[in-house]
Amino acid sequence: MRIAVFGATGYAGRHLVNEALARGHEVVGLARKTDALAGRQGLVPLAGSVHDAAFVRQVAADADVLALAVPGKKGDEGVELADSVPEIGAAAAAGGCRLGVVGGAGSLHVTEGGPLLLDSPGFPDFVKPEATSHLRALTALRELPAAVDWFYLSPAAFFGAHAPGSRTGEYRVGGEVLVSRNGMSTIGGEDYAIAFLDEIERPRHRRRRFTVGY
């Protein structure tokens, strides 16, 4: 497939690019600065923004999958991913491609019927704005017309460059509740990418959010 990865130079985006290339897919790596993406076989670097509707339509017209590995809010500019979701969804539907989103863990429930992770005691205050922005993006996805084929994959609570983990090739799948083991909810970057590409290649969660963890 031809997979367009927005945010290809970020933590999650880099892992998606690597996994997709390893599986033999053609990848379009999209970022504001693409120097780090140059020179890799099967990877086409392309500079642009997911918040540029005309650019997204252009990319979607020649892709099988749009993968968004971008923040819920774009830095100090305050541009919300949720505000761009309707245009991104329309571009995906017009281009006949699937939309996959690297989500946040903050919008997951800690336990069945329990509070959201972002509302739980001890959730870092500095993370709440981004977690809340990604929750708004998820809400916007759920409001898209039925013609838009999307999925939103929330990682475990501990996910990112601060907790990269080691590749195991294994993960467990959940729905709206954090996947945890022995009180810990975590997933490594490579294993998250495996789960994301597995969903692309063998769709099981159409127009749904799901989560993965060890």
Automatic annotation (TrEMBL):
One MF annotation (Gene Ontology) recorded for this entry: oxidoreductase activity, acting on the CH-NH group of donors, NAD or NADP as acceptor
Organism from which the protein derives: Streptomyces hoynatensis
Domain NAD(P)-binding as annotated: residue spans: 7-160
PANTHER family given in the database record: FLAVIN REDUCTASE (NADPH)
Stored InterPro entries: NAD(P)-bd_dom, NAD(P)-bd_dom_sf, Polyketide_Oxido-like
Any single Pfam family the record assigns to this protein: NAD_binding_10
Bilayer-spanning residue ranges: none
Name of protein: NAD-dependent epimerase/dehydratase family protein
